[in-house]
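queue> holo job accepted (iron/sulfur cluster)
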Amino acid sequence: MRLDILYRGPLASCNYGCEYCPFAKRKDDREALALDRAQWQRFLGWVGAQPPTDAIGVLVTPWGEALIRRWYREGLTELSHLPQITRCAIQTNLSAPLDWVAEANPERLALWCTYHPEWTSEAAFLAQCRILDQHGIAYSVGVVGQREHEAAARAIRAALPANTYVWINAVKALGYAPDEIALWRSIDPLFELNNQRYPSLGKACGAGERAITVDGDGAMRRCHFISDVIGNIYDADWQRALAPRPCSQLDCHCHIGYVHLDYLELGKVFATGLLERVPTPEARAGGVRLPVL
Ligand code: SF4
Ligand code: SF4
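queue> job finished
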């Protein structure tokens, strides 16, 4: 079996306070944290019980910041050593300690890091990136494409090694002017790929077949954008839910969704870096035809 799983437990708290985010400076109480930990550990056990010949990718997409919790650091380390894991990755603000990555398998662990210049310094963020580089951990770095972040995005791009991919998350509601698109594109050569709402209604999508989302209680959904539950990984017949289905949404505009839309063929752009959002060097250099550019 080959399957990518986007895992999201009940944790919904963060040490940062981004003003646009509902989890900003939110705290989970002890009970909520204990539940999150127990459900994550159950999930780890479930992955470990799958046949070693499977090819499972895991991307943790928490509501808040998960790496500040020890159980996620230990769990990702554990996953990275499992034979059935092709990739285990997590979306993070990269503020947590990183000593644990020394124990992880660098061929499988990867991080999707977002730089929040209003909550950390460039020097502190770069120091964290250097630790990842020292341990050979794959990662991408991203910045939310708000106008006030332009200088910080440009500076972090310049300061990071050239082979580290920096993405800019397009805020579609801002309706970028052509000169702004050119500006963001000078930082992220694939910016326009993210600055789209891809028509998806009725189109073939791997979400629900090649990729699913899983909640802490095991509930399976096609993706984070369609709320229908299609099964539960803790049921014996869970694999019966994996089937091709056309999309029921008008459009798809997040990387974690549209990368599964068949007609976009984004496997050619991201290859093994799909989960942590790292395109191939060829795609970054403009050597792969993009669907919309
Ligand atoms: S770092 Fe992420 S989760 Fe935390 S407040 Fe900012 S956007 Fe929200
Ligand atoms: S196109 Fe997007 S919204 Fe539709 S099924 Fe795929 S991931 Fe989900």
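queue> Residues 140 and 164 are 6 Å apart (CA to CA).
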